[in-house]
Amino acid sequence: MVKKTSKKGVTNEKIMEALLDMDERMVTKEDLRKAFKDFPTKVDLADTLKDFAKKSDLEKFKEDILEEVRPIARAVDKDAVTSIDHGKRITILERKVGVTTK
User: Fold this and answer.
1) In the Cβ-directed half-sphere of 5, how many Cα atoms lie within 13 Å?
2) If you ran DSSP here, which 8-state letter would residue 54 be given?
């Protein structure tokens, strides 16, 4: 057979305890004012954002950097090509003379 459990009803005391507990945890307007007093306003944030670089500024900086780097990269590439060409020429001359290189 199945045992029957006795159902205990909710008492007024339990209801009052729950209400008092909720009252203790509730936040008042004064609590919210204290909490949000130190938060920055839109004006404060706008002033702060003026100091940061924007995407257009970053693109401009990128182009400025690339203007400086591109000629250097071309010079390095030309030098590398010139070195390879001279290396080939030297190898051909050494073969003609009879010097073997490894």
Assistant:
1) 3
2) P
Give the integer Cα–Cα distance in Å for 31 and 37: 10
User: How many CA atoms within 13 Å lie on the side-chain side of 101?
Assistant: 10
Which element (helix H / strand E) includes 60? helix 55-97
Cα–Cα nearest to 101, from 90, 85, 80: 90
Q: How far is 48 from 42, CA to CA, in rounded Å?
A: 10
Q: Count the alpha carbons within 13 Å of 18 in the hemisphere toward its beta carbon.
A: 6
* pLDDT tens digits, one per residue of 23-56: 777 778 888 888 888 888 888 888 888 888 888 8
CA distance 35 to 47: 22
Q: How much is the pTM? A: 0.34
